[in-house]
Structures are given as structure tokens and as C-alpha cells.
Fold these 2 entries.
Entry 1:
Amino acid sequence: GAGVSQSPRYKVAKRGQDVALRCDPISGHVSLFWYQQALGQGPEFLTYFQNEAQLDKSGLPSDRFFAERPEGSVSTLKIQRTQQEDSAVYLCASSLETGIYGYTFGSGTRLTVV
Amino acid sequence: DQQVKQNSPSLSVQEGRISILNCDYTNSMFDYFLWYKKYPAEGPTFLISISSIKDKNEDGRFTVFLNKSAKHLSLHIVPSQPGDSAVYFCAASGNYGGSQGNLIFGKGTKLSVKP
């Protein structure tokens, strides 16, 4: 597609529920990033893929967070047993090559945990 | 401990005048800096960047200045237009232990350009 597509745009989850957030990067983009943006804050790095390899997951806040990109294109961020502090906008970004910093963000998924 | 700081949460400027957005950083290992622009309900959009080997980069109405000794950068928009009204994020990257492409963002500055 023309841009990075994320779904759903909005998700309301009850505390303790598992959620899965999807990212469709720009076709052919090698690098894929997940960021978390809390209200009033800048985006914070969660994890990074180069093709299907997860090269950095140092930003994942707990072992309840898991990301995958099995075929090197679509990626899923899964959050198990959601907590209220998980409420945020989750942004996905992709870039054509490794080391290209001006990458393209999707519109994000706003997760609200009630 | 914030490594990238945008100390002004908001800025209001008259159309046609200059907008100056400021950003400070603490980590001397950062070697690449970017500005992103964000409209409500959209993802951030890359605007302009600068490498630490330069002190200025210009792209149309947008100029970024880097002062490495002061660990400070600024984004100048001249002339400002109402369509520039958005939240502007400063971001940094480099060989500080993060993976390549991992950006550290500031909290953002909301720019309002009045007609």
C-alpha cells in the first residue's frame, strides 16, 4: 500500500484481556519499528525488526508484550493480560533500508484499558 | 531521565513570522537528529534531519540548526503558515547502545500559527 497501515484504529480492552495490534508496513520495507506513545509524551521505542528478525526488543516494558513478523512483512504486537498503564497509542513505522532514520509512521492504534 | 528535552510545551506565532522550536539533549553519543510533525489522529511525519557533522540543514521553509557544544538544536520555520500548526517532535539517534534506527523522542511542542 501507499503508507503504513495499522489496525484496529481504536481498541478498548478490559483489564486482563489479551490484545493483538496489526501493522502492514510499506511494501518492500526492510525495517519495522513499534513505538508506544502515552498521553502528553513523545513516542518511546518498543522493538525493531529487520525483515523477520527481531534485532532489538529492549524497549518492551514487560514479558506481557510480544511482537512478531514471521514473513518479514506484516507485524503483530501482542499484549497479554492488559493493565491500565498499557493505555497508549501504539505506533508502527517502517523504512526501506536499515539505518534510514526518516522512516514512515502509521496512524497508530489507540488502546484504552478499562 | 529524559535524554531529549523540549522545554516549551506550546508556541503561538503569527502567520508570516518566524517559528523557532528548541530541543536540548544530554547524550553526547547522539549523532543524528530529526524533527517530526504530527497532526491529531495521525502518525508523526518526518520533516527534516541533520547529522552531527553539520551545523545547519535547510529544506525550503524549514531549517535545522545544531550546536553540539551546547547540545542544542532548533527548527526554524520561515514564513510560518496556518497549515504548520501541529505538534513538533525532536528525535535523536546514534551509537549510544540502542539499535540502529531506534529514536529517542522529546515530549513535543505544540505550534499554533494564527492567521
Entry 2:
Amino acid sequence: DQQVKQNSPSLSVQEGRISILNCDYTNSMFDYFLWYKKYPAEGPTFLISISSIKDKNEDGRFTVFLNKSAKHLSLHIVPSQPGDSAVYFCAASPTGNQFYFGTGTSLTVIP
Amino acid sequence: DAGITQSPRHKVTETGTPVTLRCHQTENHRYMYWYRQDPGHGLRLIHYSYGVKDTDKGEVSDGYSVSRSKTEDFLLTLESATSSQTSVYFCAISEKLAGAPEQYFGPGTRLTVT
């Protein structure tokens, strides 16, 4: 049973606009949430994380928002760049030790 | 980039043969992980380690074993490879610090079982 879900397999955005990637989870015990970017034939690259005591964390062009009551998190990329085209995975963890991943969303940024 | 290497990077093996994949880190992180990535499933945890000789099972541990005799090395063994174990395998490391964790991945090993 998938505890972390990314319901949009793909997303296309114009360069310079905002990309919003969404993730839902079912386990209320999850306390930590992470986002990764993955290019083909490479390992995932850590982007940003957030703990459940916060509702927002920002790092440059990347911002993660957490809505605990809705069990929903999102990653905002502003402005989107062609180099952001990749598959994005969200992950969640109850303890910070064991991580559960979503199935990924493929982002295409159109120049 | 986090200092994580995986070997081999590619391997083709026959059903029934044993296979060992190696993960090596230079970051001295406590936690090490083995994941597999398959279409439609994202990344699924096979086993993880929280210290030398300390390991635990993940979501998809059947058919796999692991060992960690040194902080820097984490081995994944397929005792008798099956075609269902054809996949891309990723090693990852993390360290539990104050605040939200960060986890870093190796480049992956593509394993084909014929």
C-alpha cells in the first residue's frame, strides 16, 4: 500500500513560470519530508526537506509547503528553468531513519 | 557531491547465481540504505543500516541480505538472483542531525538477471 503518493505523473511548465509539484501521504506518524530531483541514469539529488514542526521551508528557488491537516506537501520552483526538467520524488519518514518514496512526477520546463 | 560510490555500475547475471553489490561512502555517515527503483514504483527500501553490524529490513527485503562490517561499506547480496530482481539499485547515506534529515544517493547499479 503506497503511503506516499504523487498523483501527477507529469507536468509541463513554461520557462520563468512557477512549477508546483504535489505529494500526499497517508501516515500521520510521518514527521519528516524530503524532495529529490532525478536525471536519467543518475542517482536522486537531495533538494530540500522539512520537519512537521514547520509549514514552510525555502532554499533559493525551491520552497516546500507542508499542510499536516490535509497530509499534503508541495514543492514550488520559481522561476522554472529548462535545467529543472527531471523527475521529482517526494519522500516521508516517521523517524528520520526510514524513508518512503512517491512514484515521481516528471517535470518538463519548456524554453 | 556526497562521497558515495557503487560497484559495479552495470551487471548482467544469470538466474540462480549469487550477486553482491557494494556501496562505499567517505562521509562517515551513520545510516546507509539500499533501494531499488522500478517503473511505477518509485524507490523502495530493501534494507538499511544504522551502524556497523546493525541492519534492518525495508519494504522489499525478501531475497536480499546485507552486511556492514565497516562504517564506510554496505554490501547488498542477492543469494540466488531471479528475473524479478532486474532493477536499478541505489545506495544512500544520511546522518541524523537536529532538524529535518538529508539523504544522499549514489549513482546507481543497473542489474539485469537473464
